[in-house]
Amino acid sequence: MGENKQAVFWVGLLIVVILISMEWRISELNIGPLVLQPPNNSEAPTSSSQIIFTSETISQAEIEELIERWDIIHEEADRNWDLSQLDTVLYGAALQQQTDTVNGLIRDNCYWTITELEPSRIEKFDYVDSTTIKVKVYKNWDMDKFCNGVKTGDEDGYFFALYDIKKINDHWLITYKDFDHE
Predict the structure, then answer these.
(1) Which of helix, strand or coil describes residue 64?
(2) Burial (CB count within 10 angstroms: exposed 0-12, middle 13-18, buried 19+), residue 161
(3) Sign (positive/negative) of CA torsion 33, 167, 132, 39?
(4) At 76, phi and psi to the nearest 5?
(5) Rounded to whole angstroms, what are the CA distances from 42 to 1, 46, 56, 133, 172?
(6) How far apart are CA 177 and CA 74, in angstroms?
(7) How many Å apart are CA 172 and CA 96, to the nearest integer?
(8) How do residues 4-49 score in pLDDT, each as one tens digit?
(9) What contacts 53, CB < 8 A, 6 or more positions away?
């Protein structure tokens, strides 16, 4: 697992360097930064390939970074009952839902181990408005639940995570989360 995360980190860093390089070259053309913008008409795009680029909203790289940070914080919260970082990625109903989940684990003396079997990938994102985006993320995890030191649950495989991401006080946070085992 450590090697996987390290590889994902280096690939992510390479992508950031490439994007910064592209931004620099584009700035020479006086085009402006490349980031995603919701459409100004009623025909909203249904995939990232149809998004128009401006400097108004969240970029796909920022979405991916937020989801990656959430996955790391989620693993830590469910494994070590650590609530301290949840509010850096979650807000509102999503924060309350995860806090309740961790408090239930504490109450029952349980924890989850989560191993990412392959990197998450964004399958789809749709703009609701200029400060809200809906995201569908493909994941493949191995999850084991332990209570009182005994393995009591095992959930493995592919699933989709569904998120609402909203800009709140100049920060993009997950405000809704759910899972779909299609």
Answers:
(1) helix
(2) buried
(3) negative
(4) -65, -40
(5) 44, 12, 18, 15, 24
(6) 12
(7) 17
(8) 666 656 655 556 545 444 444 433 333 333 333 333 333 333 333 3
(9) 34, 35, 36, 37
Sequence letter at residue 45: P
Residue type, position 180, single letter = D
pTM of the model: 0.67
pLDDT in tens, 111-139: 999 999 999 999 998 888 888 999 999 99
Alpha helices in the chain (DSSP H): 2-28, 60-80, 92-107
Question: Residue 10 phi/psi, 5° resolution?
Answer: -65, -40
Residue of 152, 117, 154 lying closest to 138 (CA atoms): 117
- Tracing tokens 């299609």 back to the chain, one arrives at 182
How far is it between the farthest Cα atoms of the chain? 61
